[in-house]
Amino acid sequence: MKQVKKRVPLLSLLAAAVVVTGVVVLCGSSAFAQSDVENIIVNGTVAEYAQIDIVAQHMNFGAFTGQANQTIGPKNHSIFRVETNTIVNLEFKADDLAASNGQSTLQTKYLVQDEVSDLGYTNRDDTWAPVGALFSSQGACTVEDYSILGWARTGDQISDQQAGDYAAGITLTVSAL
């Protein structure tokens, strides 16, 4: 019985040696000499996206004396920063300063500038004529600052504007091209 027990481990070692030798021979044979390569395509999509930040927002014309034909400006740079990963359209809109009770307005014009040049006026032009919105565009994968300069003036008569507080808004709308 003791002899049989000693032979089993020896037979197991011999069988394992034959298997290893066979694997080595097969791996070294010409049947496996060429490589086989396959690729898997990996996809993803980045959505169009733009973000508007207000870097400096307060434009304060201060106090008008109430006299006729008084112009104040240019005043404070209000600054929008636009970061985008796609080409975008920009629409700048602004309003005349309006009395808090809505009874009177002060003509107000705004000049939009990018980091290099004047883009144009919104609400009113340099002669105070109404012009509406200003349209522009911005390239893909960019960050741009847009400064807004403002001027406001009282009417031709003292009675053209009511005493009190006035406010207006400047709106920037960004849309993908």
Count of strand segments: 11
How many helices does DSSP assign?
1
| Beta fraction | 35-45%
Gap between N and C termini, in Å? 90 Å
Q: Could you tell me the radius of gyration in angstroms?
A: 38 Å
Structural class: alpha+beta
On the 0 to 100 scale, the average pLDDT is 85
Unreliable spans? 1-8, 10-27
Shape: rod-shaped
Helix content: 10-25%
Oligomer: single chain
Q: Spell out the helices and strands N to C.
A: HEEEEEEEEEEE
Summarize the main sheet.
Answer: 8 strands, antiparallel
Summarize the structure.
With 177 residues, this protein is an alpha+beta fold. The protein has one helix spanning 2-28; strands at 50-56, 71-84, 88-94, 97-99, 105-113, 118-124, 130-132, 134-138, 142-153, 166-167, 170-176.
Structure explained in plain terms:
The chain is 15% helix and 43% strand. Strand 4 (97-99) and strand 5 form a beta hairpin. The chain is built from one helix and eleven strands. Strands 1, 2, 4, 5, 6, 7, 9 and 10 form an eight-stranded antiparallel β-sheet that branches. With 177 residues, it is an alpha+beta fold.
Please write out the topology.
Blueprint: H1 2-28, E1 50-56, E2 71-84, E3 88-94, E4 97-99, E5 105-113, E6 118-124, E7 130-132, E8 134-138, E9 142-153, E10 166-167, E11 170-176
Antiparallel strand pairs: 1-2, 2-9, 3-8, 3-11, 4-5, 4-10, 5-6, 5-9, 6-7
